[in-house]
Every structure is written in C-alpha cells, then in structure tokens.
Amino acid sequence: SFPGGRRDPADGDAVATALRETREELGVAVAATSVWGQLRTLPDRHGMTVAPVVANLGPLEALTLNPNPDEVEEVFTLPLAHLLREENQGYTHFRTASGYGYTLPVFLNGPHKVWGLTAIVTELTLELLVPGHY
C-alpha cells in the first residue's frame, strides 16, 4: 500500500497529511512543491474516506528510503512500463454475502500483487498520467 494514515490536528489538509505520513513511514521528505495534485476521494472498506495525493519524487535511484519498521514490512517499486504491460494487469472479482458483486484491478509483479485500494489508486493515477495507454 501507499503511505497513509489519519489526519492529525496539526495537518492543514490532505496534502499535509500525505507529506507527513510519507516522511514518517518511508523517511522521505517530499516538498509541497513536488505535489502534482489530489485524486478524487475514495471510501475504504471500513467506511473511511481516503484522499490520494500524487507527487513527483524524482528519480528513485536518488531517493534514500528509511522505512519505519513499526509501520513498513517491505518496500518495492514498479516502473511505469511494467504497470502498462497487459500481462501484468488483471482483475479480481468479489461477491458479498448479500450477492452483490464487484471487480477490482490487480497489478502483478513476481511475488507481489498490488490489489485493493492501492490498485484502485494506481489505476486512477495511470489513467491520469498515460491516458490512452492504460
């Protein structure tokens, strides 16, 4: 999943929350000027509202990550080209006890599967960054 968490009283807005959470979870200080914008809000499975924020971190090779072991088990990245390959894209079908069904995207990468809300945010980001290619 992406860095994230509840808004603290000191956070001015969703962008401030995202920047703080990225710093706390990954040890990466992202400047507010690197923020490209905010995607539409989404409900999570617990009824909370998630406000995805998209920012440019620059070349990944230039980043020094210092993940917080209390919050982050593992870090991996996926290149844009990998996400755009059809063989790395899929869908998962769910059905609730009441019979309601829905489909969510999945992105594959060896032992890693990006699914759930993270895959939805990834899909929305791809639609924005590379319209017509995803």
TrEMBL record:
PANTHER family the record matches: MITOCHONDRIAL COENZYME A DIPHOSPHATASE NUDT8, NUDIX HYDROLASE
Name of protein: NUDT8 protein
Organism of derivation: Vidua macroura (Pin-tailed whydah)
Lineage, top ranks: Eukaryota, Metazoa, Chordata, Craniata, Vertebrata
Required co-factors: Mg(2+); Mn(2+)
Pfam families on file: NUDIX (PF00293)
Record has Hydrolase as a keyword: yes
UniProt-listed InterPro entries: CoAse, NUDIX_hydrolase-like_dom_sf, NUDIX_hydrolase_dom
Gene: Nudt8
GO molecular function: coenzyme A diphosphatase activity; metal ion binding
Record key words, sorted: Hydrolase, Magnesium, Manganese, Metal-binding
Domain spans labelled Nudix hydrolase: 1-109
Keyword flag Metal-binding: yes
